[in-house]
Task: structure prediction
Amino acid sequence: MNQPTQISLPVHVTEAEVAREKTLGAAIELCAKVAGFEMDKQLQGELGVDKGQFSRWQNGTEGIVWPKFSRLMDLCGNDAPLLWMLYQRGYDLGSLRKRETETERENRLLREENAALRRVLQAGVTT
Result:
């Protein structure tokens, strides 16, 4: 099975775009389209699936396993199919947010520490 060679840069997908889609297959097509892919051999090759399997995902006759689903979204740089599922289940997409990654947490803590040290230094200068 081919592994994607890279993860795409994030691409924003609006709630309106997601809400317009009527099926999971259409949301998968949206995912690919906003990333600049068509449902073509390049994307199929990157995911390690054939045209038939891709077609079955689109028309809903075959489910997509999580590892391939996740790779599709990573490769395309957006979560349109996942957002579509949440929207279909009644979730408010505007109030969802991603959890902080370990790197983001580390950066935030370092920024907070840096700011605290600056306050201490500035207080020492004024006294």
Notes: The chain has a mean pLDDT of 86. Helices lie at 15-20, 24-34, 41-47, 51-59, 66-76, 80-88, 102-126.
